[in-house]
Amino acid sequence: MKKEELKYLQRLAELYPTIAQTATEIINLQSILNLPKGTEHFLTDIHGEYEAFSHVLRNGSGAVRKKIDDVFGHTLGTADKKAIATLIYYPREKMELVKKEEQDMENWYKITLYRLIEICKTVASKYTRSKVRKALPSQFAYVIEELITEKQEVLDKEAYYDAIVTTIIDIRKAEDFIIALAELVQRLVIDHLHVLGDIYDRGPAPHFIMDKLMNYHSLDIQWGNHDIVWMGAASGQLSCIANIVRISARYGNLDILEDGYGINLLPLATFSMTTYQDDPCTCFKTKGNSTGNLEEAKLNMQMHKAISIIQFKLEGQLAARRPCFQMQNRRLLHRIDYEKGTITLNGKTYALLDTNFPTIDPKDPYALSPEEGEVMERLQSAFVKCEKMQQHMMLLLKKGSLYKVFNGNLMYHGCVPLNEDGSFKEAKVYDKAYKGKALYDALELYVRKAFFAQDLEEKKKGEDIMWYIWCGPNSPLFGKDKMATFERYFIKEEETHKEGKNPYYRFQENEDVMNRILKEFGLQGEDVHIINGHVPVHHASGESPVKCGGKVLVIDGGFSRAYQKETGIAGYTLIYNSYGLLLAAHEPFTTTEAAVREEADIISNRVAVKLAVRRQLVGDTDTGNELRERIEELTRLLQAYRDGIIIEQF
User: Is the Cα torsion angle 470, 473, 475, 476 positive or negative in sign?
Assistant: First the structure.
């Protein structure tokens, strides 16, 4: 035996110091390999829509209702099934309504507890007792385990279980127990959650989504460009800060910053009211989510304009400072004729819709005024010092990445940049060019440097690269040749608004190109897929999220209300369980109140993308491969014990 192997086995022996413990663990791991694979749940482009996101997690994209059907079949009517489903989704809220209407609560408690126990037995059956035990709420862990575990030694099982349930009701713990069982069902229906980016922007509550993810039992996140710009802002990158304040103003969501994260926007508000006091700011109206308060709307528009001008200045400075980003064409302020109120782009002159630029010096248009500089200095300090925001960004760093390969699926938010001929497109990351997987790896390394590098220059490069990932022409998370923000505000002609998509989107039906991408990331064969979001699928006009014969799945269907008129639905989710891949298209979510009071579930149309020939087991997954490696190591340890090479520690 080699020295290195012996040293490793000695370390392993510290965890399993006897033959009996080693053998027991081998048996345990081998049994896990033969369990059904856990259900993976894929979501993308949530864009701050917390209520819809929360409901989809609670109902498992229809999985909870399916389990209810599996357990009760025709023994329960539709109304009873809807009631028990709503109770599982919102146990506290539903019980408050029940108590106002139900005459015999003790009987209701008993019936409900029995029904929930049966559902728990079913959802727990695909997991080991150890895994279920870890998922149990500590307060009732022992009792729940007794109730959902088949006990062969008990002769009168009905009396045994009835005694436990009766005691729970007698000691007035029925409601707490119902809540615990409902949350256990939610927890066990989804084994692992994949979030494919764009948690932030547009919708009103991304901070609540992040709070929920902070406590989620098992997840990974593939960063979207809207997440990256928030990460950049949290690192103190000024262009990123200006972008997220502008987007929050544009969608009437400044309270996310003020109330959600405690960012003081008073300096910006004061500056905006003073500078744009007599400016109607008509180009900067709120998009949706208007309060109806005219004074508040006016201030929002003033702040919107103020931060937009600051953003264009800062981005112009950054593009000049980082020529390797190849974004000099986004420096537009020096192209304006301030006397005539026009701008010249690509040899053509356009009239500007707004010509009031009190803070721009035509001789030095990208310089911040002293007042603008002070506003940004205070915003930067507020972002960097915001404890809650930093916690949320640490979650993105800990659980997140630019891409992930898991169980035969390649997940990323946007695209793999391609040339017109379908080959991988090179992009410069500072002093070196990268393409394909190497581009993703290089960009991710710099994102992490922004938060962890000790070298200040490397840290600054990391901060700046996040702005590039947000809107750069070769960014895999953006996937367009430009972000035409300035043009959409200031120029009427829609030809200037056009943002050319990367050729990747043309090649999504090309099997050769998609196979080349999969191979680049280490995946080959028939049962491998690319899963991504970013570009909404226009379901209403007949576009399918299933592309390239099922090899590519684009699951952005419009979680964001801002997109739902275009897409015709309210988002897709993908479910990968032991039976195969299922795609769910969701109807718009109304409100949590309606979901509780009217038992209005999200209507989800589920379509099988690919069904497994046989039921998939843990042994067929990446986790299975890891377990087999562990079994092999433990088997070598067992042999070392038996050969006397390593001595048992009793």
Answer: positive
